[in-house]
Amino acid sequence: MAVQYRAPRGTQDVLPSQSYRWRFVEDLVTEVSALYGFRQIRFPTFEHTELFTRSVGDTTDVVQKEMYTFTVNGTERSITLRPEGTAGTMRAVLERGLLNEALPLKLSYLTSCFRYEKPQAGRLREFHQFGVEMLGSASPAADAEVIGVADEIFHTMGIKNLEIQLNSIGCPECRAKYHAALKAYFEGYKGQLCETCLTRLEKNPMRILDCKSPVCAEIAKDAPVMLDYLCDDCRVHFDGVKKRLDVMGIPYVINPKIVRGLDYYTKTVFEFVSNDLGAQSTVCGGGRYDGLIEQLGGAKTPGLGFAMGLERLLMIMDAQGIEIPKERACELYIANIGEEAGIKASALTNSLRREGFYVECDSVGRSLKAQMKYAGKIGARMSMVLGDDELAGGAAKVKNMATGEVRELKFEDLSDALYDLGVEDILAAIEEDQEER
Ligand code: ATP
Ligand code: MG
Q1: Is 154 helix (H, G, I), strand (E, B) or coil?
Q2: For ligand 1, atom 14, which residue shows the shortest CA distance?
Q3: 242 lines ligand 1 (CB under 6 A)
Q4: Which of 46, 120, 305, 388 could form a disulfide linkage to 133, CB 3.0–4.6 angstroms apart?
Q5: Which domains does the chain have, with CATH numbers?
Q6: Element (H, E) at 141
Q7: Which ligand is nearest to the CA of 65?
Q8: How would you write the pLDDT of the chain (437 residues) with one tens digit per residue?
Q9: To test ligand 1's pocket by mutation, which of 280, 311, 313, 316 has the most ligand atoms within 8 angstroms of CB?
């Protein structure tokens, strides 16, 4: 039969054979960031469009080309699916008064994001991010902490060969001078810049440095860099970040070309870059956004954060052969012959599950042969067969599915045996029994 419905381009199904890998990564990022004091926030999948145009910035690729924006049922209100997590987090923080709590406020999120992009390896239209946000500290100690938590996550996962690229893009004061210098530089290439960059030249020349067009990228190579224009305050701040990373034992390289794809950044910006990702080499990006809260209508509050792409993270783990602990396999399959034994199998299975064991029995009404075939297919570690004799005797032979060896156990001893010994030990005991005989 031909497949009638297909998933929209740039989306992904995570099947049961893969979902344990996602859960592993989600648990790990949550646990590691909790050690650094970041607590999870959840926010809606869609927001009013102006939240994103105001915060992400209307000269960015995200706002200009990538947002899923629509109006609903003839209303005029424009809605956008979140293209990133910071805007929604900040909106919730302001709306719910979270800045009245103890500062710094440390939040994390695990969320899907939507961007209308050309799908390719590591670039989807629905993708997933883990991110943290830290609000209320202007100190470089906060920058080092945020970079530190990302670094620790990658370290705990066993990911190697990631390069931390660091830059400072200054504050609005020192950036004004830099903008003028950039503008003067790019004016000389007006005939070659792409159309988008021509408007950027007027509105926000720094955006040109982030253009994906090869021609613009080539021109940008020799452009002036922000590091040469930092004011004293921004320079001291940047030195403070570097010093702390040094003593924390976190290596980095300075990349004066990083400007990041979103408009709200100030001072520190950084990316975690991998050689195992092909063209989409950045797995995590972030930085400071000291003006964002004010821009969204709150009191001036410094802040910073990062977001990592979970699809790209999993791709690196794959490429580096990092093993993710396998899911727990079925510990016992209870096969049965006949109506009475079937009822007993349901009862036993249910009570063992209530005690925390992964137990299965036939729920289809198959023949014994088909039941055992199924037990093999799901990879059951042990099996037992209930028939009239077993019901009468209150005991059954438990078989090690890997070796075929058996050991007789009373029904009432089953859960104790599973508890006391654990699956591995029962399997070992079965083996020992067999050797003695
Ligand atoms: P890129 O330059 O690759 O487009 P970006 O600067 O747009 O990245 P951010 O907005 O900083 O990305 O998002 C943070 C992270 O989210 C990226 O480093 C990446 O790992 C991931 N990411 C961004 N866009 C996508 C996408 N379309 N598909 C999968 N992952 C993505
Ligand atoms: Mg992008």
Answers
A1: helix
A2: 307
A3: no
A4: 305
A5: 16-171+231-319 (3.30.930.10), 332-423 (3.40.50.800)
A6: helix 140-157
A7: 2
A8: 688 999 999 999 999 999 999 999 999 999 999 999 999 999 999 999 999 999 998 888 899 899 999 999 888 899 999 999 999 999 999 999 999 999 999 999 999 999 999 999 999 999 999 999 999 999 999 999 999 999 999 999 999 999 999 999 999 899 889 999 999 999 999 999 999 899 889 888 888 988 888 999 999 999 999 999 999 999 999 999 999 999 999 999 999 989 876 677 899 999 999 988 888 899 999 999 999 999 999 999 999 999 999 999 999 999 999 999 888 889 999 999 999 999 999 999 999 999 889 999 999 999 999 999 999 999 999 999 999 999 999 999 999 888 888 889 999 988 877 766 556 666 666 666 666 65
A9: 280
Nearest CA to ligand 1 atom 23: 309
Q: Which amino acid is at 328?
A: R
Ligand nearest to the CA of 118: 1
H-state helical runs in 288-367: 292-295, 310-319, 339-354
Helix and strand numbers (H, E) in the chain are 15, 16
The Cβ of residue 172 has, within 10 Å, a number of other Cβ atoms equal to 10
Q: If residue 81 lies in a helix (H) or strand (E), which one and from where to where?
A: strand 78-81
